[in-house]
Fold this protein.
Amino acid sequence: MSAARAAYWVWRRELQITLRAPIVYIIGGLFLAVQGIAFAGLVSALSDPRKPAPLGALLEGQLAGTLLTWVLQLVVLTLLGMRTIADDKRSGGWELLLTAQVGEGAAVVGKWLAAVTVYALLWLPTLAYLVVVGIYRVDSGGWDLASIATGYIGAIALGAALLAWTVAASAATTTTLVAGAFGFAVLIGLFLVGELPSAFPDLGIDHPSLAHVLGALSLRGHLTTFARGELALSSILFVVGVGATGLSVAIAAACAGRRRRTEVRNRAVASLLVGTIAVLLCAVAVRHPVRWDLSAKGRNSLDAQTRDVLAELPGPATLTIVRPTLGALEPIYDEVRRVADRMADAGPLTVRTYDPAALPGGLDAAARAAGVAPGDLASNGGVVVELGGRRRVVDRLQLVTIGRDAEGTASVESLAIEQAIAGALAELASPVPVTVCATTGHDELPLEPAANDADWSVVADRLGGDGMTIEPITLDAGVPARCNVVAIAGPTRPLTPAEALAIQAFVQRGGGLLVAAASRPITSPSGSGTTSTTLASTGLEALLGNAGIGLPAAIAVDPTLTVREIPGALLVVDGYSQHEINAGFANARATIWFQPRAVLATGPAKPLVSASAASWGERDLEHAPPEKNADDLAGPITLAAAWSGKSGRIVALGSAESFTTAVLHGAASAGDLWLERAVRYLAGRPASTFEVHRRAPDQVRLVMTSGQRRAVMALSILGIPLAWIVLGAILLVVRRRRTS
């Protein structure tokens, strides 16, 4: 008979024998108990009201499993395969089979197919898990049937590939126990090799190429890919390669002792060749990834705009993922890593993952770039995007929106991972040139480091790092045409009328003006031999007044916003108005305003940053502590205001000292980031925009009482496995009665 017919005959014969053996139902019960343990853990995570529901497809957590469930599952595969040939060799049935016009290849393939069929049947009872989820599910995410189907098919296919190696171990010996030990050693070795990058995170940092190779061998990784509804060519070739190589080795082992040494040696060489071809094909597939996204929502695909950005990058970029110290955020950053890896497959990106303490360049520098406190970046994580010597830090608030569901449980409302990272890359790849001209000659705060950190050097570094050109100028000959923005940083001597006219002409022809008033009091002798304290004028009062902006001689005081470590400073967290400068600041980034002057915003001028309703503008600069009096300005006091005309723009700040190195380095203030946004607004050249729709996360939320949770766990770990064993016992009894 032909090899195909012979293999089919062996498959039917072996399947009938296997299904009559009590051991297969015991093995099936063990397998279902292992899957029940994994499902019980998944139910616990999906129904925990203290944590957000895990991200990912329904079967992703189930099939990914834990180290324990994987070890037990490999034990089940070993038990299914170790008896296939070794028992027949010991009893003499193997020789009888081969004399019935069946070759070694057909016999091995037939027995392997029978074991695969039994393994596939063992997965059928796990469909009950979907029923349980359907009963207790409260989210409206729907069922991703394609992902469920690919998850099951992938699990069975991977199991079939691994069974080929246990069959090979069975063919190499006549002792079942030896076959089991050898087969399990092969399977656990293959599993552990793929787990090395997860077990040793530093491996990906010190030896990224090696970690990438080991990751391509991860059984868990390939199965998770299938569970997400993604068919990756590398995963398909991996499964086919492992299975084909295992079967080839099994056939060669089955021929040993029966065929001439030359033929056995040729078959061994052929097995080596099959394995080599499989490795080469997988390497090509990993290097040139091809994927098919079968998920219902296309969660495994990048947006077309993202691909365009990656294709147009001027050079290699680096994404450094800062893992959060808050364990509840780990699932979010697992998704961040998956998105980053997909982007790395589509463009010249290198993806790294670090703990906050080991972050290159230091956590403080990354937190400064993000405009958040170092502790917040460490606990919430983020992504450092670097390209061409420039960097952006994407924090957790930009990556994901977390809210509360109807049950009051924390839940991920939307994901903007791709949008945030691709937007940062687009901004770094296409810098918008801006020239900032800083006036001198009026005792302004210097842009270079100065004594007591009374300078704007941190601001200058921020603007320069963002690709802006910073140039000191005098106004003797007016404002140079190359200037996009003129910055006046805390002058204590007012501009002359001629200089004020030059600034006015600059604004009228479309320029941007940043006026940061000096809030440090000036003490001068009075005519009666005493001294008086006042605040310096800018010399631009008429220009600002025409724009509806005033800078009265009053200091903003707010008992509710005081900073104990910095007397006179106000900490603003939610006092930001709706304006493009303030995007991403409200309740997310704090700015410290050191003894800020009150800013009046009337008519066309709009407040940007304000103190609370409890604030007032203190006019008495002579006596301390400040007290609210009838002649003080009523709150809420504006700390910064903006005006936009038909051509130019103006931003007025009540305190240049709020942006000095002493304040920015001495406290958790995102003032330099806020000022960089203000300069871009004034230049009329905002950062590159990138619109990718936020995605609704794949989350399943179960609502269960503790009793229901215990009942489901008992059903999955004990009930379903026992039902399988009882069903097997009933079938065996019925068959024996029929035969008798």
The first strand starts at residue 230 and ends at 232.
